[in-house]
Amino acid sequence: MDGRQILNHAVDQHKETTAAAKRALRVVEQTKELQASTMGALQDQGQQIRRIGHGMDKIGTDLTYSQRILRYMRMCCCVGFFCSSCTEPDRENADNNWRSGGVPRPPPPPSHAAAAAAAGDGDKKAIKRPKKGGAGGAGAGAPPPQFAPVGTAGLAEAGYGEQAGVIQKETAKQDEYLDQIASGLDQLKHGAMAMRDEIHRQDHTVDRLHADAHVLHGRLTAVNREGFKI
């Protein structure tokens, strides 16, 4: 192979590198779409779990209220006659604290959003690529390592101006694709942290609902037992 053939082969390889970068960008975009749909499904699931929690709160409040009604009926009324003051007592704030011992609902676990955001800002600063021809700001630390630019001045002087133009054009495309890939990966990272926090909150809520179900089962058994005694 002579010099021109070698150069043409190098140009073809450079074009293939550009195509590979474009394919990688397409994969990143598809992953972002998949992540967005998954996050939407997670949020819908979280809303359903919260609705279940509100329903269990209503059940617990009603059971506590029912226990007070049965207690008043047993203490104050005669068989076959129930006065309205006994059968319909005013609801109390204590009815809302229906968990064992009147313990209020435990607070949710601390969110990692603030820490994740702080870490994300630091990562952004760390991976941000400086603009061409510029230098990093003073006090910002050592800039990230960069590859040496592709020089084509010698090719143009040697009579390979067409090949040099193609190489410059493909290099510009590669830089653009790589910048978009870096931005997309950064978005994927922050989206993954948001999904982690959402799953963590849902896990905590499900554990709490499981404990509440045991409490409600015990209270429902007690209400049934008291009702049969009247």
Task: Report on the architecture of this protein.
With 230 residues, the protein is an all-alpha fold. The protein has one domain. It has helices at residues 3-76, 84-87, 113-127, 153-157, 161-229. Helix 1 (3-76) runs parallel beside helix 5 and helix 3 packs antiparallel against helix 5 (161-229). The longest helix has 74 residues, at 3-76. The N and C termini lie far apart (104 Å).
List the main descriptive attributes of the protein structure presented here.
73% helix, SNAP receptor activity, 230 residues, 5 helices, mainly alpha
* Number of structural domains: 1
- Please state the structural category: mainly alpha
Query: What is the H/E order?
Result: HHHHH
Fraction of residues in H or I helices: over 70%
Say how many strands there are.
Answer: 0
Radius of gyration: 34 Å
Low-confidence stretches: 114-119, 122-142
From the N-terminal CA to the C-terminal CA, the straight-line distance is 104 Å
Residue fraction in strands? under 5%
**Number of helical segments?**
5
Describe the global form: rod-shaped
If you average the pLDDT, what whole number results? Answer: 74
Give a quick account of the main beta sheet: strands, pairing sense, barrel closure: none
Give me a quick take on this structure:
The chain is mainly α and 230 residues long. The protein has five helices and no strands. The longest helix is centred in the N-terminal third of the chain and has 74 residues, at 3-76.
